[in-house]
Amino acid sequence: MRGLYFEEFEVGRVYRHPFTRTVTESDNVLFTSLTMNTQPLHLDHEFAKGTIHGRPLFNSLFTLALVGGFHVLELTFGTTLGNLGYDKVEFPHPVFHGDTLRGETTILDKRESKSRTDSGIVWFEHRGYNQHDDLIMRCTRVGLMAKSPEHGGSNPAVQGDTTPVSEEQRA
């Protein structure tokens, strides 16, 4: 199984990813501790009681990483050559432990690479929602995507695998 090659991306297409994940207090504490983020809003229940949230808030970088990962198997598994940047990262609604998150991606734009003949550039908008369909995260990401071998691609990680995710899996 592989993600999409550059030429398979359709501008305007929306993908509702099939994965969901309930986030736990342990996820938040571990991620926050591993990244040396000492913000008590994420780690200290007594401190958090006195905030506008009344309880610990999930680390937003964990949220970005989790929602950013929902698309991988469906869209970029083995076909991405790297991230070129993130833009307009927003967290319009808080995330708390016990929330169940899901993601959607829209293909915003794409163009051939000006410096590499084996790849193209794709603009993605990734969105995360909680179990109440509240938008909890939105970002724009730019990725360098491999072209298929038939179109000059040379990514060795996917050269032997010609099986894309099926349309039923993408729906």
UniProtKB/TrEMBL annotation:
What name does the UniProt record give this protein? Acyl dehydratase
Q: Where is this region: Disordered?
A: 147-171
- InterPro entries this protein is in? HotDog_dom_sf, MaoC-like_dom, MCH/BMMD
Every copy of the MaoC-like domain together lies at 11-117
The family assignment reads: Belongs to the enoyl-CoA hydratase/isomerase family.
Q: Which stretches are tagged as biased composition: Polar residues?
A: 156-171
